[in-house]
Design the sequence.
């Protein structure tokens, strides 16, 4: 198993190493070199300096704050509505057309409305993040609840469980494997949208820092911040996978789903 994991990690490093070598090679070819293309060593140094003076860490906390708030709001609303729609087909048929109409709306289209309501700041960003992250949680939760074995619900009825008890003791545990997938998707979307909002309009976080570096022609800092965003996204993805795998019974539920 250890050799298998090592081989997978080595294979996963092939493309990053190839891109790094290609970047270094292009920088040394005068005909291909661009003014906006920084040397990899300069990018690494800019990242190191940004971490040492905590400027990148401060921007990271601002971005993660908005992403976490938006994701939390989306998770709560999406889980609640998904369970309701999954258990009540009539309500789903009534709400379905509205969901289908709103889901294709780009999240950035909410920026003018959010700016009007909250102004610049974390609330603006969190609202847009919540709108984008809400849909995968809602759709996956609804599908997961629908896929529950009807016999489990019959047992709940036979035990005369209340709606709340049935939800917590039967519905959520049975659908948790699929729900976790929707939450993982929403978590990745939350970071992407948070950075996008900061690039477009919100003067805070990693996206704004990256745009400020680009406008100031500090391309090494811009690439360093872009690399850091990628590392943050990778870390969040790995952490969410570990949490799902370590959750009691999650692996079995995920395989059954």
Sequence:
């Amino acid at each position: 198993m250890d050799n298998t994991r090592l081989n997978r990690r080595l294979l996963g490093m092939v493309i990053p190493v190839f891109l790094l070598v290609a970047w270094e090679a292009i920088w040394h070819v005068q005909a291909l070199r661009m003014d906006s293309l920084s040397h990899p060593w300069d990018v690494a140094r800019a990242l190191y300096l940004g971490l040492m003076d905590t400027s990148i860490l401060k921007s990271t906390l601002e971005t993660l704050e908005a992403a976490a708030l938006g994701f939390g709001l989306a998770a709560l609303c999406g889980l609640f509505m998904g369970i309701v729609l999954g258990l009540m087909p009539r309500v789903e048929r009534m709400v379905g057309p509205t969901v289908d109409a709103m889901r294709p709306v780009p999240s950035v289209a909410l920026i003018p409305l959010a700016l009007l309501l909250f102004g610049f700041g974390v609330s603006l960003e969190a609202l847009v993040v919540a709108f984008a992250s809400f849909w995968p949680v809602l759709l996956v939760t609804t599908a997961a609840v629908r896929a529950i074995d009807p016999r489990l619900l019959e047992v709940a009825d036979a035990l005369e469980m209340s709606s709340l008890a049935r939800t917590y003791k039967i519905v959520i545990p049975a659908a948790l494997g699929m729900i976790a997938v929707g939450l993982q998707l929403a978590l990745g979307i939350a970071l992407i949208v948070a950075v996008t909002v900061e690039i477009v309009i919100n003067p805070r976080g990693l996206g704004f820092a990256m745009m400020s570096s680009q406008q100031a022609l500090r391309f090494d800092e811009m690439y360093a911040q872009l690399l850091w965003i990628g590392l943050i996204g990778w870390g969040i993805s790995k952490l969410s996978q570990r949490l799902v795998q370590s959750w009691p019974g999650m692996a079995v539920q995920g395989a059954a789903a």
